[in-house]
Here is the input.
Amino acid sequence: MQEAARLARAENKIVGLVPTMGALHAGHMALVERARRECSQVVTSIFVNPTQFGPKEDLAKYPRTFEADSQKLAEAGVDAIFAPQPADVYPPGFRTYVNVEGLSDRLEGRSRPGHFRGVATVVLKLFEICQPTYAYFGRKDAQQVRIISQMVRDLNVDVEIVICPIVREHDGLALSSRNAYLSADERKAALVLSRALTAARDELGSGTRDALALQTTMQKVFAGEPRAALDYVEIVDADTFEPVTRIARPCYVLVAAFLGKTRLIDNLYIEPSPSNPDELQFHL
Ligand code: AMP
Here is the structure.
C-alpha cells in the first residue's frame, strides 16, 4: 500500500482515503462517492482497530462482512481497498500512540476510556501508509473528526480533512454498523435519539437559545422511552467540545444511549447561517 501510495503521489494523483471499520452501509458509501467525485484515486481502508475498543466492548463480535464490502466498493469504483490484519498494524513491540489531549477525555472519551487514543493512532498510521491528499470522515462521529483535525494540525500532517453529513434511514435513525445488533424492538426504540435531536432542533427553531432548556427537552423525550438508557446529552462548542450555556457559535448537540447492550450516538450540528449570522442553521 505504501509503495502504491508513493507511486500515486509521484504521478501527482489526487488520492482520497475513506477510513472505515467495514460492514459498509450508505453512510460509508456517501463518503466514498464524495471522494470519487473529488479525487483521481480513491482508497478505502477496512480495519476493525483493536486499540479503539475497551476490554468490555464489542471487538470480537463487531460485524465483519469483507466479501459484501469489497463488492460494494468495486461497484462504487474504488481503486484500492486497504484491509490489513491487526498484527500488520500492531506488530510485536509496537510502542507509539497518539494522544490528543483535552478533547479526548470527555463525552465519548469519558464513556470509552482509551478510545480516541486508539482512533488517533490508527488514523495517523493510515495517513502515513496511504498518503492521501484528502481524507473523508462522517459528522456522525463529530468528536472523532474534531480530534483527527486537531491531530493533523498539531503534527503537521499533509492531508486535508473533509467532513460529510450524517446519512439516515428514512425514519431518522442514523446509519451505523452497530444498528445490525438491534432487535426489532430495540430498532424501534432507537428512534428516540433522532427524536430527541429533532425536538431540540424544533425548539431552537422557535427561538430557544438556552442550552439547559434544550437538554431538559431531550431528557424528557428519553424519559418517554424506557427501552433506551441515556448515556449523555450535551451541548458543546464545536471547536472546544466544552459545554455551552447559550447557543450562538457553531455547536453540537450530542447524544449517546444504550439500546440493550448496543451503544448508539447521534448529533445535531448548529451553525450561524452564512447569509445572516443572526440566524442559525441546523444539520441533523
Ligand atoms: P466506522 O466504520 O463506523 O468507523 O465509520 C467510518 C466512517 O464512516 C467514519 O468517518 C464515520 O463517521 C462515517 N460514518 C459512519 N456512519 C455514518 C453515517 N450514518 N453518515 C455519515 N457518515 C458515517
